[in-house]
């Protein structure tokens, strides 16, 4: 059984009976379609849409050029219903640097691929991730967890071809691609830009790569204030108007981007230790996660807050490395959602020239002094402080006394 095919040579030696290829019309996928045709491997292409309103016409046209059927599946609704809420509950930032993006979409793409592959009777699911991309394990790990009997083809792990080699091969069959040097991976939550001049973190950023966010120098001089209301840890209302999560993300991307909020530059660890530089735009993610953190701080007990921070970091690390559908990943996600049940209330924020300032937080479940009011004050008046101080200081007093070292 060919469970993993990690090079073009392996695919030629042990060809799948019928491959389902995750395909969005890009250079790598189109080149792989050409190679699969040359190997006489039966293939069906699958374009998984997350946030795009219409099917990708380029993907359809190029698949047809190789005589390949293409399936188009829109999973935007599942993204907002299942995958994005888990990231909000976890305040999911990669190594506390920037909001995660493909970490959320790759498991959903893999699940969709497994469903379609099972329907079509495919024995292998293919993708084009390289050894420099964490998506290799996110896709492969998710596919294997959901369908252990379906093989995974990731030929560009072992077959490392340059962009120019792929372009030249496709030009030979009449297919051309723009000469753009940047790789862009976009979904409703994040827009990630890498490669080209961005590969080195030592280079100054090229302003032209940004699409969602303004530079702070051109952002409006007047600040904007917004209020977000949460229920059970998820945002449900903006400025007094109930709104679906997908619509809220779209609106906050526009508002935050206009005011220069949500730009990131950082290094992501690759599977083999080398770091990959990437630029990220995520206005809505920045705003929602900040408000969620503030609300959690107001509502959670110290023990709950410490525990949810630990679990959130562990969940984020787990799913970044392909464990979305693992028992650990699913258990941690359920725990975070459960800890978020009391998180209800409104957070008011100011957006101004790249800054995001918390103005106020109001929660019916808040543990802050002014909300608890007179009852708490009266209870504290009856409290005896001597036993508390005696117990709290006992270890240090014991050590100072010389009775223990």
From TrEMBL:
Gene Ontology terms: biological process: argininosuccinate metabolic process; L-arginine biosynthetic process; urea cycle
Domain Arginosuccinate synthase C-terminal: 182-372
Pathway in which this enzyme or protein is active: Amino-acid biosynthesis; L-arginine biosynthesis; L-arginine from L-ornithine and carbamoyl phosphate: step 2/3
Keyword GTP-binding (UniProt): no
Pfam families in UniProt: Arginosuc_syn_C, Arginosuc_synth
GO cellular component, one term: cytoplasm
EC top class named in words: ligase
Arginosuccinate synthase-like N-terminal domain boundaries: 20-168
Protein name, entry field: argininosuccinate synthase
EC number: 6.3.4.5
UniProt GO MF annotations: argininosuccinate synthase activity; ATP binding
Keyword line: Amino-acid biosynthesis, Arginine biosynthesis, ATP-binding, Ligase, Nucleotide-binding
Keyword set includes ATP-binding: yes
